[in-house]
Every structure is written in structure tokens, then in C-alpha cells.
Amino acid sequence: METQVGDFVPQVLEQVGARIDGYVDELLMVPQSIFYMPGESDALGVLRAANDPAVTRSLEYTLDLHAVLNRLNFRTGENLQSITFYSLAGDAYLLTKGGGMWVERNYKDQPWYGELDTEYYAPTVWGTYQDETVTGRPYVFSIVQPVQSAKRHRIDGVIQVSGSIEAISAMIRKVNFGAGSIVYVLDHRNHIVFSTNPSVIGQAWNRSYGFDWGERPVGADSFELELEDKPYLFSYNWSSDSGWKVVSLIPSENLSKGIYRIKFWTYAVVASGILIVFGLALAIAYGFTKPLRKLSDRIKHLDLQHLDKPPDVDRLDEVGHLSNSFQNMIKRMNGLFGEITHEKVLKQEAEIKALQSQINPHFIHNALETIRMTYKSGRHENGEQGLISLGHVLRYQAAQEQDAIPFSAELEFLNKYLSLQKLRYGDRLSVDLEVDPEVEKHSIPYMILQPLVENALKYGVSSFDHSIALTVRIGVEDGFITGDVIDEGKGMSPERLEQVIAEMGAFSGNRQGGIGLANVYQRLQLLFGPSAELHIESHQEVGTIVSFRFPVRPHNKGKLKHANPNR
Asked: Could you tell me the pTM of the whole model?
């Protein structure tokens, strides 16, 4: 039995090692994915532009770089701590869950610089260390990926991905070999990535731990050794793919206790088996209660999605009468359930219409105020042109009776709205529209863009020259329509941003003022449910980005399919 225990431990370590290999492979793919993502050349162009002497660290370039790194970021869950892009200019852009910023950091000063692969540009796994740039200084291990240059054996920058060892810790915590046992996880350079003895994390393996790895074969093995005059069972699993190792050091006395425990449970299982056989005999004796038990089981596991399921009991005795009564009750419940569902759908449609009707007078009031101010300033021709544009807009609104409209119609409406705003702001206003032609194949919710642009106009006035520079991006990605409305205004403090997000979720249709963002958020939730998203990112004296995302719908002039009211 001791031999069987010695074979069992490496099998456990092999399972843990396979999960760790999967985790490391997942993080290795993060920096490499930039070379396979859609628009690869554009992404690499943004990274390489950091080395252009003519490029300054402007807001526009920083946003582009932030967007590229963010596409690598945080879709692996909590395992990813940070992403850093090192330029050849001696600085770096650090992206964490808290945001991004430029820092003075030269990649040549980093301890991994000498191990960069400039031959095949493959990622390199670096050892465990405490990350000083993240709150709490957690233990992480890094993966560094050189950005290939057009010139051989040259690079245009380095991407560093820092992965949390918490995921590895969670895997190891599930392995318990008793008191005094120690488990190690080693990387391909024999550095200790994690251990149940925290004092050795980050150190290199040496003979004081038991032996030299150069004397052991790749694979799995167990053997006995003595450390400090105490016998141990030493087991390991050495992955031939990644080179990582999972090692356990178990006091021999724990194994003796485990063997006696196995014998005890063996006897217990045999005794339990005898009791089970006796119980089955009793169950057969009570077999005549089967019809009642079937009916009782159906009541306990009633499926509201299949209320029309026929009865399982077909008898003419008292049990049959009871089953028929129960079936009649289920039919009545099915009818009531349908009526309630229909009422919820009607209520949801009424809420959407109410939100749309609230946007219209709000918009008309602002448009008329703009035209009034144009006439008041003496620009009568511009005011007349504004009235013509307003007429087009009102006809557009009056003609919409459905939730979904072709994207081209919504874009034309947005352009007419911007022409009205041009009357008010003149040359102070500049708008950059970036639209993916793929979007024109789809329908979008009616009047969904204008409130976001109006909000950006209201709060996007620059503190430096009072200009208003807006960027509107619309595209299609992985079955979702995505968009960003970006301004370079005063931005918001973290406290104000948190308040705005809270007000969006608690928005009431009866509230006066400040309806733009909240109205759009509520309509997206009613139309698409949890699959729709509206995010706000803002920094004081830098600007604000409002991003939305909702599932695509086929190009049609009907209604959008509303979110399930029971969800």
C-alpha cells in the first residue's frame, strides 16, 4: 500500500501541473494576441509610433495606445494584474485595472532585458516578484514580449504582462498532504513561483531543498529522502511542454497515518454496502407506493417552462383522480402565467415609448433655443438654415413609430443635428465621425446617438481655448454594435463619475433635467437586457469617453425584440 500511495501523489501533482500549464499558456497568449487581432497592422503602427520623434504624448495618441493595450486587457478575469508597453524613447505606458498612465521607465534597466528573444520574438516568462506599481504589492510573474522591428534582430518596443499568482495559489490550496507538508511550483528556470512556505517565493531552487534537478528525469517520480534527520516522501511532476514543475515534500509519518485511515474507510464502505442492500430490500417491500411517489416527485420538481406536460400517472383509482385534479390545476396556472407574461411585455413597450417621448421635447427645446440665439445675434441666414434643418429633424421624428431604424437614417439625423449645433458654436466645434461601413447592414435603436453627442457638447468645452472637439466612433465587433463618444472637456472627478453612474441606474422617467445618459442606458436595458452595456470613463482636465455596446439586429424596419421580462 505504501507503493500505491507513492504512485498516487505524482498523479495528483500531474493534475495540478496540467491546470498550471493551461494558466501559463493563457497568459502567454495575451501579449501574442496583438499580432493576431483584427487590424493587426494598425495596432502595431500605434505601438511603433511611440518611437517617432515627431510624436508627443498627446491625448489623442495616448487614447489610441490605451485602446490597443485595452484590447489585450482583462478578458482573462482577475488573473491579469497589469500591462506595460516600453518604448525605445525610455518611457513606458502602464495599464492597470485602475487606468493608464505614462511613467519614466527604460526597458534596458529591467532585469529581464538580457533574456529578450530578438531571434524569434517569442514571449519570455520571467520570475516571481512583488509588483510595486499595484496596490498591495501582490506577488506576480511577468511575461515579456518584444515587438518585432522591420530590421532583423531589432525591436520597436516591449510588452510586459504581469500575471497574478493567486490563481496558482488557489490550485495549490486544494492539495493537502497533512501537517508539515510543503508544495512548490517552479518555472522553467527552476525559480520558485509559489510555495506553501511563503518565505521562499521568488528564490532559485538549490540542493538544500533536497537534490539538484540536473540529476532527475523529466516526467513524474516519487522517492524517499532525509532532510535535517527527518524522513520525507519527495514527489514531483515535471511538464515536458512548459518545463514547469509541481513538487511536494510530505513527512513519512503522514503517509503512515493515511494508510491506517484508508483501511478504516475500507471497512466503513463494506459496512455501508451491507446497510444499502438491506435498505433496497425494504424499498422493494414498499413498491406499491410507486404511483404516489411519482406524483409527489412531479409536484416537488414542477417545471414552469413545461406546464403543459401530460400526467405521469394513468390510473382509475383514487391516485388517478388525484393526478387529474393536479393536472387541471397546472393548466390553470399555465393560462395565468401566459397572461402575466403578456402584461409584462406590454408594460415594457410602454416604458420604452415613454422614454422616447421624453427625449423628443428635450431635444426640440434645445434646438429652438439655438435658432433663437442665432437670430438674436443677427445671423438671419444661418437662422433660416437652422429652421430648415429643424424641419427635417422633426419630420424624421414624426415618421418613426418603431424601436429600430436603419443605421443610415440615424446617421443622417445626427448630421442634421450637428449642423444645428454648428450655428451655435461656429468654428469652436469640430466633430470627427469614424463609422465602420459594416454598421450600415444593421438596425439600431431610434435616436440613440443624439443624446450622447448632446451630452458631450454640453460638458466637452475645453478649459484652455473653449473649443469643443468630439470624436464619434461606431463599429461592429463579435456580433455587437460598439461605439465611443469622446470629448476633450473638463472631465469628472472620481466622486462625480461614481455619482453619475449611480444616477443612471436609479433613473426615473419623471425626473427633470440630466436625462441624456440615463435615458439611453434605460432604453438599452429594456431593449436588450444585460447584454447591453453603457460605460463612462473620465479624467479631470483630460476628457470623457462614453462607450456603448449592444447585440446586432438584422436590418429591418420592424421592432427590436425586447429583453425577456422574466430574466
From this structure: 0.42
